[in-house]
Amino acid sequence: MLKYITSRLLMLIPVLIGVSILAFSLIHLVPGDPARSILGEKATAAQLEALRNELGLNDPYVVQYGRFLGHILQGDLGKSIQSKESIGVELIQKLPATIELAIFAMVIAIVIGVLAGVIAAVKQYSWFDNISMTVSLFGVSLPIFWLGLMMIWIFSVTFNILPPSGRLTTGVELNTITNFYLLDSILTGNWVALKDAFLHLLMPGIALATIPMAIIARMTRSSMLEVMRQDYIRTANAKGLRKTIIIFQHALKNASLPVLTVVGLQFGLLLGGAVLTESIFSWPGVGRYVYLAVLGRDYPVVQSTILVIAAIFVFVNLITDILYKYLDPRIKYE
Amino acid sequence: MSIEPIPNVEVEQGKVKSTKSRSLGMEALFRLLRSKTSIVGLIIILILMITALFAPLIATHDPTVQSIPNRYQAPSSEHILGTDELGRDIFSRIVFGTRISIQIGLIAVGISMVVGVFLGAVAGYFGKWVDQIVMRFIDIMMAFPSILLAIALVAVLGPNLRNAMIAVGIVGVPQFARIVRSAVLSVKETEFIEAARAIGGKHGRILFGHVLPNSMAPIIVQATLGIGTAILDAAGLSFLGLGAQPPTPEWGAMLSDGRAAIQHAPWVVAFPGLAIFLFVLGFNLFGDGLRDALDPKLKE
Amino acid sequence: MKKRYLFMLLIIVAMILSACGDSTSKSNNKDNGGGEKTLVFGRGADSIQLDPSKVTDGESIYVTNQIYDTLVRYVEENTEVKPALATEWNVTDDGLVWTFQLRDDVKFHDGTDFTAEDVVYNFERWTTSAEFTYYGYMFGASEDDMGGIIEKVEATGDYEVQITLSEPNAPFLQTLAMPPFGIASPDAIEEHGDNYFKNPVGTGPFVFKEWVPDDSITLTKNEDYFGEVAKIDKVIFRVIPDNGARFMELQAGTIDIMEGLNPQDIATAEGDDALQIIRRPSMNVSYMAMNMDKGGPMSDKLVRQAINMAINKDELIALYEGVGKEAKNPIPPSLWGFNDDIEPYAYDVEKAKALLAEAGYADGFDITLHTFSNPRPYMPQPKLAAQAIAEMLKEVNINVEITESDWDTHLATVENGEHDMAFLGWTGDNGDPDNFLYVLLDKDNATVGSAGNIAFYKSDEVHDILKAAQVEMDQDKRTELYLKVQEIIHEDAPWVPIAHTTPPLAAKSSVVDFVPHPTGSEPFNLLDIKK
């Protein structure tokens, strides 16, 4: 097991280096100039040139990349050239916002998706099966930015029952510890903030949950069907065990393995893929952060943040793989 | 969730044992036509194709003609879906937008398919270090957040519809490559390929003449489903202002432009979104049915 | 198992229901809390740095204008100046030596006394690096001469400062009133070093309290302010990037005032008794520049005039939904020196066609128009305006291809002169015509790569007059010169001047005495919140 994990970890290194090269090259190829972006349209040519020198933008690309990689290896993500703030510090603010939203969306997706998948499998070919599987296709067909806007129009504009943007209402005080607002408000016993943060999570959470929910539902259904054909389930049935026990304790447990892979993959995708959702709901997360950095030509932010997101993504996948192998007695690792 | 290839598969349903590809194709078609959802999908796709083909006849107005004094009109008998921020007829713009969406879907998926199939086939067929290099490259692309990759690519190439299609196409490459690779891997070891090799067939001929044709099923399924994804991704890029340039009636751009007026004229946002949804749904329903039909093992 | 799910569902439903019941009350709690008055200001982007000398973005300057004072400040309505840190001043007849008498009763927020030495310290600091953008830009600094036209700044007494210029500079006093030249506490600068930008210390009506990046900045009132002490206790600047979402927050009552209103939402706000629209007086211009540097049709004066005639400004301005007035000159009418005798090119398709035919373009031509995606105060809907103009020019056989890009790409494109036609605009800094005409239309600023003059309009006649006006100290004579320049520019038509906007703010009706300043930045010490 340890050997397997080590070799997988080693394989991540070239991938992450590749990601860093790709990110570096892409952002440097974008036309436009960070110096201009910082100084604005009112700077003179001399000022621009001076700032470019100061930022090291006139160095050869290889030198600039080497400097970036050198800092990363020392654990230093660099400083934003726009805000002058350390990127590590900024990510401590933004990553929890995105992760909290992704976890919230994943919980919705798993609860509803697994439940729908199980029922659909148990009552195969029933109306529930047909409807839920069709609806799940609706889920993967929806443009989520459109869904977000429509929800805002219905729940914020028309009925005014849900907040349209942000993580917390201005004026609601919350002492942050982890920057996960739900967790922080529970830790500090701040129920006003808990409710407020929860309400702010609802719409973006649902918007983000639609696609994974649909995929999980379909995956659960098909792997449940496969498991329920197995001999041991037939045996359990024959022994006259209660149906709910068979379904939840035996079948679901074994059917959950492929579902786990999907969950891991989707969770990773949510982290970097929330750009649209975050921008519609003004969610101060990491997707928006990189997107704005691309627009502002903030090279260090783009490079470091994409690297961090990619690292999280591959680690989440690695962990799901390991869990998969750990949970499934049939698979051997060497 | 990899899709397995299907040559020489024993078809359980209908108790037909078949090893010939023609009857297998008939069997698949039969299954496809029996599935209600794929029929619905097919109907939606046909309607969209007809709309695109006869757009000038179906549209009630010129999609680009403006009438600034008549902007933000609610749906009426004159403008059945209302007018947009420049007084253009939304229905007519959506009708003409069908052409653009079909174009985006086909071109973007075409790019993903050509590049992805080539990379996947080469990696799977030659194996060893070729496989290692190609697959590490694919891993890098997979680890790079896809929407950010598309955004960055468009930012580099310049924001317009052509570049958005290229970006969406590139982002879709890994999916194809992985599917094709695993399909090729399993076909490669079958007897007739080994026979072809034994008689000294050239690699290129074996790969493109024998291996790939026998891996077509998953490629077709992925291409159908990929069209939906490509439309969604391209609409997302347009929504961020990184896609179609005005006054192109691209649905994502229409939605994005109407966004400022959502309190005032929600129809400007609502209808283009519905159009995207229907389009993508059509291809997803059909693609789903296609997968079940071509690979009976996946569906009970 | 079933029961547990049911319970969870119940909790969720209960939470949603209780939220509905609450939505009306949540807006009021902060006004009533112990009688403390808090103003929540909603805006689209966060400040970049709270050191005004190093930034040019409005979002940074808007906040620092509350924290710092300048030697002189603008009066409430326009860009005339009034005493602030300096109580009186005089200038020698040659316009070279300015002497300022300073207040002797001012303390920085960190408790240190404000003296003439502090002014000298600030001026010297501004000449140490190219990062002090506005200093370099207003006073003409370059890498070899970081001081620019300011030769030296000396403390000639505890509360007296003398500034010596190398050449006369007519708008000097107006320039000193710009927020970037706010005087910072030298102690704080030394103490915080590189982190000074997030620990600002000035003498202004509000004291910096907290900054949560991309979320909010909190200021509290300065009880010991030497001017009028603020009526509100606290200001929170909150970032809500999307204009529509920000307006919804205002409707829900979670913010008190906002800038960057979608023009489409103005009618909604006006129909709501709880809300009001406040229009900022105009000191800007939006325009379409025609690149004269590329050869081809744009270098022909007749073509440029024809394009001016082919554009129906009434319809174009309608897209501004009431926040803009048609422009005929590069400078806004609120500025002195505005030439009101100029007759704008009237909308006349036939005449435009005739001119194009005369120029040899009867069959029209293909051309690009570059625009940008994010609205700016002088141009609330750039994408729509581009499409409208493209449609209008089709009438005279000019086929326009629109390229919309993000702001940074757009700036890079137009400064490099890659466009045929491009949108841009300008908000005045100090209320001087020079700040529009020289920056935007002088040949000095038509350098490819860093152009302010993106029409690449290189008239020697205009250049000579503008240069003469810069060193002329008599305002009547300067007015004459600027009137003349506007005539020449009108005739040469390097631009289609589009509009001068009055950027709207929306506020709760309870916000009173909020007087928006044309420069886009007003101190909050005079406004109040009615209970």
TrEMBL record, chain A:
Pfam families: BPD_transp_1 (PF00528), BPD_transp_1_N (PF19300)
Subcellular location: Cell membrane
SUPFAM superfamilies named in the record: MetI-like
Domain ABC transmembrane type-1, residue spans: 95-324
Keywords, alphabetical: Cell membrane, Membrane, Transmembrane, Transmembrane helix, Transport
GO cellular component: plasma membrane
Topological category with respect to the lipid bilayer: Multi-pass membrane protein
TM regions (residue ranges): 9-30, 101-122, 134-155, 197-219, 257-281, 301-324
First and last residue of the signal peptide: none
Protein name: Peptide ABC transporter permease
Organism: Ornithinibacillus bavariensis
From TrEMBL, chain B:
Subcellular location(s) of the protein: Cell membrane
Name of the protein this chain belongs to: Diguanylate cyclase
Source organism superkingdom: Bacteria
Membrane topology: Multi-pass membrane protein
CDD domains hit by this protein: TM_PBP2 (cd06261)
GO cellular component, one term: plasma membrane
Keyword terms, alphabetized: Cell membrane, Membrane, Transmembrane, Transmembrane helix, Transport
Family: Belongs to the binding-protein-dependent transport system permease family. OppBC subfamily.
GO BP term, pick one: transmembrane transport
All copies of domain ABC transmembrane type-1, residue ranges: 98-287
Signal peptide as annotated in the record: none
Residue ranges of the TM segments: 39-59, 100-125, 137-157, 219-244, 265-286
SUPFAM superfamilies in alphabetical order: MetI-like (SSF161098)
Pfam family, one: OppC_N
Automatic annotation (TrEMBL), chain C:
Topology in membrane: Lipid-anchor
Entries under Pfam families matching the protein: SBP_bac_5
Entries under InterPro entries matching the protein: Peptide/Ni-bd (IPR030678), SBP_5 (IPR039424), SBP_5_CS (IPR023765), SBP_5_dom (IPR000914)
Residues annotated as transmembrane: none
Signal peptide span: 1-19
Keyword annotations: Signal, Transport
Name of the protein in its database record: ABC transporter substrate-binding protein
Source organism per UniProt: Ornithinibacillus bavariensis
Superkingdom per UniProt: Bacteria
Family, similarity comment: Belongs to the bacterial solute-binding protein 5 family.
Record carries keyword S-adenosyl-L-methionine: no
Entry-linked PROSITE patterns: PROKAR_LIPOPROTEIN, SBP_BACTERIAL_5
Subcellular location: Cell membrane
GO BP term (any one): peptide transport
Entry's Gene Ontology molecular function annotations: peptide transmembrane transporter activity
GO cellular component, one term: ATP-binding cassette (ABC) transporter complex
Domain Solute-binding protein family: 80-446
